[in-house]
Amino acid sequence: MAAADELAFHEFEEATNLLAETPDVTTISRSDPRTPEGQVAVAVGSGGGYGAEDEVESDKTALLQEPQPQPGFWTFSYYQSFFDVDTSQVLDRIKGSLLPRPGHSFVRHHLRNRPDLYGPFWICATLAFVLAVTGNLTVVLAQRRDPSIHYSPQFHKVTVAGITIYCYAWLVPLALWAFLQWRKGVRERMGPYTFLETVCFYGYSLFIFIPTVVLWLIPVPWLQWLFGALALALSAAGLVFTLWPIVREDTRLVASMLLSAVVLLHALLAMGCKFYFFQPLPLEHMAPAHQDTSLHPNVVLTPTPPRPMITEGLRLQV
Amino acid sequence: MNETDLAGPILFCVALGATLLLAGKVQFGYIYGMSGIGCLGIYALLNLMSSSGVSYGCVASVLGYCLLPMVILSGSAVFFSLQGMIGTVLALVIIVWCSLSASKIFISALDMEGQQLLVAYPCALLYGLFALLTVF
């Protein structure tokens, strides 16, 4: 191909921002980035196109193809364009979420207007699963150190974790997207992100909590708080850097309120997970001083009679 | 992969149940339930990710045949308890083996290059559930 140079990946940050700010230059319509591109990607097959290559392709093929009617959202083919990613693309997006850089918006730089649902879906599933497993493991490990603690497998934690994480990953982006759409009138230069892009970067931002949750198994309280703070800082920084180009044109008050609301919700999620799944088990024989009365405690620290031996035996049959 | 052969997979599921029975766990219901729902999930995912569709029988067939190493794991559980370090390591190796072979067959049959790890990960989660059943 003649455009071989354009296909090489160049680090053009200004160009990326300019392209985003003047969307008329690109051949993709802002409101519906999927239609011509999604079909081009499927037709080409590997779907590994970035930036310049996509625009060149869609220029040519848009002339050759007739615009096909959008499949309804109840069919598989509607969602197929969101799963059209390679392993390398997913890994690149995960790395991008782990190391946020100021001035690099995750959506413009890594997603390049091609959000995928594979990453967010599996990251949320893994996070929910890991939360439930490590929540149970902390009690098992505590029991090994202190045999008076009574442990029974808490399978409802999987459900709670799943529902919490998925609700957060879908409802918060929905609210954020709705708010940004409402404020669209204030912005002239750059269009807001589509709903799926918002879901996408929220999903990828949750990735850093997976190793953090595993590290929370270490029963040293200050270390747990340190890891939590670190993960929250990285994740929230990623969100803020991604949202900054959108909100900086708004009034100061609205911009600062929005960003602080986003960071606050993220912090609430992290702390909620820490407290619910990792109730700190005191080393002494004291009752757990924990606040959430709606949760039934999974730890009974009063000295128990020999009954647990029988229940242990019964439990192994499960 | 036009022929869908379910005799082998069903035989392996029964073999898994039998070896678990030898270790004292009666869990046929869980095995059939998890296989059915897991196959459904992988079927949905593969239809979304591949450009050509895939039939449910094909998915069930491939996942069933790749369950064989899990039968080996549960067979070994008869002779020594898997709840120690060696059991954990063995279970992890078996899970990786199962999911890599399943994803390799899916990739070659459905012509999805560059997506092997993306397909292997959900298969690993499914086989991980089977391993949990075997170990605990």
From TrEMBL, chain A:
The chain crosses the membrane at residues 117-140, 160-180, 201-219, 225-246, 253-277. It is found in: Golgi apparatus membrane; Golgi apparatus, cis-Golgi network membrane. It comes from Myotis myotis (Greater mouse-eared bat). This is Protein YIPF. Keywords: Membrane, Transmembrane, Transmembrane helix. PANTHER family: PROTEIN YIPF, PROTEIN YIPF2. The keyword Membrane applies. Belongs to the YIP1 family. GO terms for molecular function: small GTPase binding. GO terms for biological process: vesicle-mediated transport. InterPro entries: Yip1_dom (IPR006977), Yip5/YIPF1/YIPF2 (IPR039765). Pfam families: Yip1. Its main location: Golgi. GO terms for cellular component: Golgi membrane. It comes from the Eukaryota.
Automatic annotation (TrEMBL), chain B:
InterPro entries: Yip1/4-like (IPR045231), Yip1_dom (IPR006977). The chain crosses the membrane at residues 6-23, 30-50, 62-82, 89-110, 116-135. One of its GO terms (biological process) is endoplasmic reticulum to Golgi vesicle-mediated transport. The keyword Glycoprotein does not apply. The keyword Transport does not apply. It is found in: Golgi apparatus membrane; Membrane. It is a multi-pass membrane protein. Its main location: Golgi. It holds the Pfam family Yip1. Keywords: Membrane, Transmembrane, Transmembrane helix. Residues 3-133 form the Yip1 domain. One of its GO terms (cellular component) is Golgi membrane. PANTHER family: GOLGI MEMBRANE PROTEIN YIP1 (PTHR21236), PROTEIN YIPF7 (PTHR21236:SF5). Belongs to the YIP1 family. This is Protein YIPF. It comes from Myotis myotis. The lineage of its organism: Eukaryota, Metazoa, Chordata, Craniata, Vertebrata.
